[in-house]
Amino acid sequence: MGIFDRLEKYEHEQLILCSNTQAGLRAVIAIHDTTLGPALGGCRMWIYPSDEDAIEDALRLARGMTYKAAASGLNLGGGKTVIIGDPARDKSEALFRALGIYIESLNGRYITAEDVGTTVTDMEIIHLETKYVVGISTSRGGSGDPSLVTAYGVFRGMKACLEEVFDDGSFEGRIVAIQGVGHVGFHLAELLFKERAKIYAADINDKALGRVVNQFGALPVSPEDIYQVECDIFAPCALGSIINDQSIPKFRCKIIAGSANNQLEDDHHGSALYKRSILYAPDYVINAGGLINVADELEGYNRQRALKTASKIYDNVARVITISKRERIPTHEAADRMAEERIKMIKELKKIYHGHASR
Ligand code: NAD
């Protein structure tokens, strides 16, 4: 497929190829949709088999960010940067500064952040050349580690699911099985412990598992057995693609709600959960706390405000459930519809003449 055909397929606005031989920079910036505001999305550094693969990944990820921002009620569009290179070998000051200059030249149409293969330190180098970067450290006025805000958003989304399934949003006595108790899973376990939920946890890292067992009384389960724990909520907080042909028959839960990205191996697995009457909180709606956290930096970071915005994930998940019931569609489709409806609504409003033309 030609480049323009690829852009037209999902109505991407712009693709920027950034090349600087001296800095060893080969990067792609994809901007999907800026109806709601500047495109915000992370900067991934990865070894791609071909330039086409890098472009495809940037386009796909940028589109994902449009949906995530729209579903979260943020006034942001979707974009993504992909640097072609080995994060372990190819990083340099020149590379990130060169990218920063390209981002600056877009005049705020795109804002970058940390992603797979890049770090807060890399973002701080980009920041030397552009103000259009978020996710820098707290010592420099940034938002720092987003995992507490992400966990809080997941917790709020879980509450909306409990209300739907049990007509009662209380966590007391509810059983939650957490897969992965790293950054987000740890904070989530703490929030659940405080609300007197019963926690089962699995992790391949014994130290991480030990912390939640000792501090929050979590019952340890092996990584293989976590799928079939009889529970109210299964919370994937480790890996993507864990909802698949193998795991679906094992689930003994009523709700799946967690922070992991890309939980469905394929869309039809979302439909399979719907058929099994397992309520699935779409990943990009419930795990938007990380995006909400970095987006707050644009107004001068304030953790309390970020948490307040993340608490609205309760309303966002509730709205997805309402659309799913009304349209009789699985929740992952309802989430897409919610995002598309918001973009369409704002597009319509932008037609209104605002009276500032010079003639
Ligand atoms: P993390 O690396 O700190 O934690 C992941 C944990 O999962 C680790 O402790 C790891 O040992 C464990 N794990 C890995 N494979 C496992 C397996 N097979 N079974 C059980 N445990 C396993 O990552 P994190 O920052 O806590 O993020 C968790 C997930 O949430 C990731 O998918 C991430 O992309 C997503 N997410 C995170 C944020 C954030 O704010 N950190 C925001 C949005 C989405």
Number of strands: 12
CATH topology of the largest domain: Rossmann fold
- Tell me the name of the CATH class of the largest domain: Alpha Beta
Bound molecules: nicotinamide-adenine-dinucleotide
Using the 3D structure, state the CATH architecture of the largest domain: 3-Layer(aba) Sandwich
CATH superfamily of the largest domain: NAD(P)-binding Rossmann-like Domain
Sum up the structure in keywords.
359 residues, alpha/beta, Rossmann fold, six-stranded parallel β-sheet, 13 helices, 12 strands, 43% helix, binds nicotinamide-adenine-dinucleotide
Summarize the SSE layout with pairings.
Blueprint: H1 3-9, E1 14-20, E2 25-33, E3 39-40, E4 43-46, H2 51-71, E5 77-84, H3 93-105, E6 110-111, H4 120-126, H5 147-166, E7 175-179, H6 183-194, E8 198-202, H7 206-216, E9 219-220, E10 233-236, E11 255-256, H8 267-275, E12 279-280, H9 283-286, H10 289-296, H11 303-311, H12 313-327, H13 331-349
Parallel strand pairs: 3-5, 3-6, 4-5, 7-8, 7-10, 8-9, 10-11, 11-12
Antiparallel strand pairs: 1-2, 2-5
Helix pairs in contact: 2-13, 3-4, 5-6, 5-10, 5-11, 5-12, 6-7, 10-11, 12-13
This protein binds nicotinamide-adenine-dinucleotide.
Outline the structure in words.
With 359 residues, the chain is α/β, with parallel strands linked by helices. It folds into 2 domains: 3-137, Rossmann fold, CATH 3.40.50; 147-342, 3-Layer(aba) Sandwich (Rossmann fold). Helices cover 43% and strands 14% of the residues. It has helices spanning 3-9, 51-71, 93-105, 120-126, 147-166, 183-194, 206-216, 267-275, 283-286, 289-296, 303-311, 313-327, 331-349; strands spanning 14-20, 25-33, 39-40, 43-46, 77-84, 110-111, 175-179, 198-202, 219-220, 233-236, 255-256, 279-280. The strands form 2 sheets. Strands 1, 2, 3, 4, 5 and 6 form a 6-stranded mixed beta sheet that branches. Helix 5 (147-166) packs across helix 6. The longest helix has 21 residues, at 51-71. It is globular and about 60 Å long. The N and C termini lie far apart (43 Å). The model has no long low-confidence stretch (mean pLDDT 97). The structure holds nicotinamide-adenine-dinucleotide.
